[in-house]
Design a protein that fits this description.
Blueprint (H helix, E strand, L loop, with lengths): L15 E3 L14 H10 L2 E8 L5 E3 L6 H4 L10 H6 L12 H8 L5 E5 L10 H9 L6 E5 L2 H4 L11 E5 L4 H11 L5 E5 L6 H8 L5 E6 L2 H10 L2 E4 L8
């Protein structure tokens, strides 16, 4: 079953490929099965994004609208999972995959860090409970994370023990205080904007709470150095670091 929140060494053991090992959407699209397959073959952990389709299926896609990657000027939530699968990502042969397809592909071979992207508290009611049914039978290390505090408030629905993390950014004192409050909602790790490191919140998470921090999105040598100094692992894009 899914790795528990009490053993998170796997989360920081290897670099995390941002939306899979894509090539900037030239021939291998982000958040595609092709990008995830390449990440597995290279031995990287995988970060991805999920949302709910019109028929309530968890699909792997970052933007709330389809225009940038499919040319369709419409919200993702207006399409069913089958309709999304029929679209082509960045002119490739890949369609929008479901979370179940991603889990079947990875099959526990590398860690997964899944960002849950919500809409609002009412629309997203029961989102984590729905995910938990999938995660409870998944054999491999996997964690969920979210910017959305109403998603974090559903932590009691994760009966599988799947770790839940806070995705965050910012350096202002009021933002850092909000992050402390959000982290206290049963979070066990943080994913933070590398350009906003260091800061007192991240120092508090790593020091006072003894929890791991991963960074996003690392693209340059300066980003690599900053992440290495102030986080425990990087979520990278646009280059290939050593896999461990």
């Amino acid at each position: 079953m899914a790795a528990s929140a009490t053993s998170l060494e796997w989360l920081t053991a290897r670099p995390i490929a941002h939306r899979g090992l894509h090539d900037g959407n030239r021939s291998v699209p982000e958040n595609s099965l092709s990008a995830f397959r390449l990440a597995v073959e290279a031995g990287y952990a995988i970060e991805c994004d999920i949302q709910r389709s019109a028929d309530g299926v968890s699909v792997v896609f970052h933007d709330h609208d389809l225009l940038r990657l499919t040319g369709e000027d419409t919200p993702l939530r207006s399409r069913t999972a089958a309709e999304l699968a029929g679209l082509r990502l960045a002119g490739s042969q890949d369609g929008v995959p479901t979370l179940r397809e991603l889990l079947d592909l990875v099959a526990g071979r590398v860690p997964l860090v899944v960002e849950v992207k919500g809409t609002d508290a009412q629309t997203d009611a029961g989102f984590l409970a729905q995910l938990d049914a999938l995660l409870a039978v998944y054999e491999g290390p996997i964690a969920l994370m979210s910017f959305d505090h109403w998603i974090l408030d559903q932590s009691a629905d994760l009966k599988s023990g799947t770790p839940l993390g806070l995705t965050a950014e910012g350096t202002r004192a009021d933002a850092l205080e909000r992050h402390r409050d959000a982290f206290s909602r049963n979070c066990s790790f943080v994913s933070y904007n590398v350009h906003h490191l260091p800061n007192s919140f991240v120092d508090w998470v790593r020091g006072n709470r003894g929890a791991p921090v991963i960074s996003w999105t690392v693209r340059t040598p300066d980003d690599v150095a900053r992440s290495a100094s102030h986080a425990d692992q990087m979520t990278f894009e646009g280059f290939r670091p050593p896999a461990s």
